[in-house]
Write a structure and sequence with these properties.
50% helix, Rossmann fold, alpha/beta, globular, three-stranded antiparallel sheet, 214 residues, binds BIS(adenosine)-5'-pentaphosphate
Length: 214
Amino acid sequence: MINAIFIGPPGAGKGTVASMLHDECGYVPLSTGDILRRAVKEGTELGIKAKDYMDRGELVPDDVIIGIVKEYMATNDSAKGFIFDGFPRTIAQAEALQEMTQIDCVFLLDASEDVVIERLSGRRVCKKCGAIYHIKNHPPKVEGVCDICGGELYQRDDDREQTIRMRLRVYREQTAPLIDFYREKGLLVDIDANRDAVENAREIADYIKRHCSN
Ligand code: AP5
C-alpha cells in the first residue's frame, strides 16, 4: 500500500495521470477539486460555501478542505492506497495530512505556463462520469459526447483565461512552498509533465513500484 501526492500547476495533468494509474494499478484518486465540483452540482452546504472561491480561482479555506479529506478517508477504503490529487495545497493542509496518514512519495508534475494555458482552454469534462478530454490532444470520438458513458461534455467555469491566470498566481504563492517542504523531507520526485500523459503515468508507476511499494 502506498499513499502518493500529486502537486503541480493547474492543467499539468494531475487528474489525467491519476485516472490512468487507477485504471492500470488500482490506486484510488482522492481529488479535492472533484469532491468540491460534485458538492456544487448537488447544491449541498459545502458546495454553496465553495462555489465563489472556485469561480474566482482562489483556494477554499483550509478548515473546509481538511474536513472533506478526513471524511473521505474515513468512508472510502483503498487497499492499494490513495493518490492525493490537488491536496494538500497549503502548508497548513500538508501538516494536517501528516497527522492523518503516512505519505510515501510526492510527485511534482511541472509544466510551462504556455502548456498549461493551452491544455486548460481546450479541456472538456464529462458531466456524468468526470472523464477528462481535450479538444485537440485527447478528443472524444463524437464531439461533445463521452466515449465511456455517453454523457455530455462541458467546459469548467474556472477554465476561462482570466480565472486560469488567477489559479496560476494562487499556485505560485500558496502551493509552490510545498515543493521545498516535501523536498526537505526527501519525498519529492520531479516529473516533466510537458510530455505525453502516458509517459508521465509510466514514469510514476515505475517509480512507485521501485521505491514505494512494500
Ligand atoms: P482542481 O480541480 O484540483 O484544479 P487544479 O489543481 O487547478 O487542477 P486541474 O484539474 O485544473 O488540472 P490537472 O492538473 O488535474 O489537469 P488535467 O489532468 O485535468 O481544483 C479546482 C478548484 O477547487 C481550485 O481552484 C480551488 O478553488 C478548489 N480546491 C481544490 N482543491 C483544493 C485544496 N486542496 N485547497 C483549497 N482549494 C481547493 O488536464 C488538463 C487538460 O490537459 C485536459 O484537457 C487533459 O486532457 C490535457 N492533458 C493532460 N495531460 C496532458 C499531456 N501530458 N499532454 C497533453 N494534454 C494533456
